[in-house]
């Protein structure tokens, strides 16, 4: 049995499949990764994206945020892998998706039950009143301010030095504890605390499928089926296999 057939078999047998995605799934959409040779952290100092720096120097911080995140992401479109996962959810094979990405591409592809572990780049949030605003309502060339509190609005994603939101962490852990199959796609397993999640599923007895272009921290430790290559191509093969039976 080929690895693709084995993966399709596990998906078909599963009663509760969860997907866990990282930056690798969005590379085919032209979204740059953060780590590695061409990663953003090779070009920019990560300390400039610490939450304390943002509140102390909102103008300087915002100029970089707009350049790196909003300008880069505004024209990006979901790729075949994002659409394949949305289709797998629509067909009832995937119950939920946890993504570490802030690029909104799962959302744009039509996935419904998404946990955005690190937040998203669609919204802005006020740290004072807690209100959230769509970025489309603001001119992003300068720091946007809360119309009620008159203080800088923060992008609704996690900065260095910020905690993962309590409800997001709890929901993610609940999904890991409940799933009987976890599909890991395009993540290195090096970003914490997100990296703690897949071992939770394994500890509860879940089978693990990994789709990645390279080995991750998980491959030799918890993975049952490793599919090396393009997530778009592999997920389309899995969909075809599922549709054939």
Characterise the protein shown here:
- This protein starts with a helix and ends with a helix.
- The chain has 2 domains: 1-30 and 76-118 and 164-245, 3-Layer(aba) Sandwich (Rossmann fold); 32-75 and 123-157, 2-Layer Sandwich (SIR2/SIRT2 'Small Domain'), CATH 3.30.1600.10.
- The strands form 2 sheets. A 6-stranded parallel sheet has the order 3-2-1-7-8-9, sandwiched between helices.
- It is an alpha/beta fold and 245 residues long.
- 35% of the residues lie in helices and 17% in strands.
- It is elongated.
- The mean pLDDT is 93.
- The relative contact order is 0.19.
- It has helices spanning 3-13, 40-43, 51-56, 58-73, 80-90, 105-109, 166-178, 197-203, 231-243; strands at residues 17-21, 96-99, 114-116, 119-125, 132-134, 154-157, 181-185, 207-212, 225-228.
Taken as a percent bin, the fraction of beta residues is 15-25%
Secondary structure tally: strands: 9
Tell me the helix content: 25-40%
Q: Can you tell me the residue ranges where pLDDT is under 50 for at least 5 consecutive residues?
A: none
- Which class of secondary structure composition applies to the elements? alpha/beta
**What gyration radius follows from the Cα positions, in whole Å?**
19 Å
- How do the strands line up in the largest sheet? 3-2-1-7-8-9
**Largest beta-sheet characterization:** 6 strands, parallel
Number of helices: 9
CATH topology of the largest domain: Rossmann fold
Task: Give me the strand/helix succession.
Answer: HEHHHHEHEEEEHEHEEH
Which CATH architecture of the largest domain is right?
3-Layer(aba) Sandwich
Distance between the termini: 15 Å
CATH class of the largest domain: Alpha Beta
Described by the principal axes of the CA atoms, the overall outline is: elongated
CATH superfamily of the largest domain: TPP-binding domain
Average pLDDT, rounded to a whole number, is: 93
């Amino acid at each position: 049995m080929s690895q693709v057939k084995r993966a399709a078999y596990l998906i078909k047998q599963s009663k509760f499949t969860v997907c866990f995605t990282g930056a690798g799934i969005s590379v085919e959409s032209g979204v740059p990764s953060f780590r590695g040779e061409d990663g953003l952290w090779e070009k920019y100092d990560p300390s400039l994206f610490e939450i304390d720096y943002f509140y102390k120097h909102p103008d300087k911080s915002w100029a970089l945020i707009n350049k790196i995140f909003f300008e880069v992401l505004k024209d990006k479109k979901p790729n075949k892998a994002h659409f394949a996962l949305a289709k797998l959810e629509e067909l009832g094979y995937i119950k939920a998706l946890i993504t570490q990405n802030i690029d909104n591409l799962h959302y744009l592809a039509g996935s419904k039950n998404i946990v955005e572990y690190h937040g998203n780049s669609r919204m802005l949030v006020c740290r004072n009143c807690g209100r959230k605003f769509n970025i489309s309502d603001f001119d992003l060339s300068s720091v946007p301010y809360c119309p009620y509190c008159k203080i800088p609005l923060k992008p609704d994603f996690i900065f260095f030095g910020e905690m993962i939101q309590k409800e997001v962490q709890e929901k993610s852990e609940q999904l890991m504890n409940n799933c009987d199959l976890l599909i890991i796609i395009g993540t290195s397993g090096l970003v914490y605390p997100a990296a703690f999640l897949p071992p939770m599923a394994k500890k509860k007895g879940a089978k693990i499928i990994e789709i990645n272009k390279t080995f991750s921290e998980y491959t030799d430790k918890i993975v049952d089926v490793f599919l090396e290559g393009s997530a778009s191509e592999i997920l389309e093969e899995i969909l075809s296999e599922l549709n054939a039976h």
